Structure formats: structure tokens, C-alpha cells
Amino acid sequence: MLAIRRGSDLFRPFEEIQREMDRLFNDAFKGLSDQSREPSMFSPEVDIYEKDNSVFIEIDIPGIKKDELEIKVEDDVLSIKGEKKLEREEKERDYHRYERYSGAFQRIFRLPEYVKSDDVKAKYEDGVLKLELPKKEEVKKEAIQVKID
């Protein structure tokens, strides 16, 4: 199990694995033309940061409806799944290039021990999923000023 220190970049190893898997999938389908390519797996990028008493995760996923998202926490693992549907009508338009992503995605994060995994809050607005992961009480300690004699 990976030891995670408070204040370190908690999710870097998982992000590197995700990027490498994305690269492998993209390389496998490089030779296909835009017309023959099926909707592909994509991986929305995330911002992860800490403030005071919580860890926050923000994911840009425009074009996805709130009811098409699935967010679960199981055994201290946060899983976010969704699917961006391909909405182009071949008959109505003569596409020269189509670069918008579509397809299913899943992002998985192992939660640090100091997060209350049973109290995760989610908000989805304007194509941005915002998750708040409150910290456990014992982690919320404030710094004590030490006097110098």
C-alpha cells in the first residue's frame, strides 16, 4: 500500500498511471481515420487541492448530464464514471474535422486516511463536477504559535 504523507501531492502516482493508460489507448488507435473511429474512451483532467478542513476535486466534464454520472466511495476508493454521448448527425453536416471527445470515462482515486470517506459531497454545475472530501477531526488541528525566549 502506498504511504501518503499529509501535504504531499497525494494523487500523483494515480494520475501518472492514468496518463500512461490514456497514452497506450491513444497510440493503439492512431492509425484510424476520423470517419472510421468509434467514440473513444477519454479521461477528463482534474484539479485536486486542499483548503482548511477539506480536500477538493474538480473535474471539467461539459456536455454530460448530472444523471449520467455515477460517483461511489467503496473501501476508501472514490470512483467517478460517466459517458459523453456522441451527438453528431452525419446526414446534416459534412464534417471536415471532429475533435470533441466522446465515450465512457472513469477516474479512480484512493482516498487518504485523513478524509471522511462517508461524508463526500458532490456538486455539478456548468459542466464542472466539484467534490468536497471533509477531513477527519483529528487532522483539523490548528498550528500552535511557539514563543521564542
Write the layout of secondary structure elements.
Blueprint: H1 12-28, E1 46-51, E2 54-60, E3 70-74, E4 77-84, E5 103-110, E6 121-125, E7 128-134
Antiparallel strand pairs: 1-2, 2-7, 3-4, 4-5, 6-7
The strand line-up of the biggest sheet is 1-2-7-6
| Proportion of residues in β-strands | 25-35%
Q: Please provide the count of β strands.
A: 7
Largest sheet: 4 strands, antiparallel
Poorly predicted runs are: 1-7, 30-40
Q: SSE order in H/E notation?
A: HEEEEEEE
Describe this structure in words.
This protein has 149 residues and is mainly beta. 11% of the residues lie in helices and 31% in strands. It has one helix and seven strands, in the order H-E-E-E-E-E-E-E. The chain has one helix at residues 12-28; strands at residues 46-51, 54-60, 70-74, 77-84, 103-110, 121-125, 128-134. The strands form two sheets. Strands 1-2-7-6 form a four-stranded antiparallel β-sheet, with no helix packed on it. The protein starts with 11 loop residues before the first helix and ends in a 15-residue tail after the last strand. The model is unreliable at 1-7 and 30-40 (pLDDT under 50).
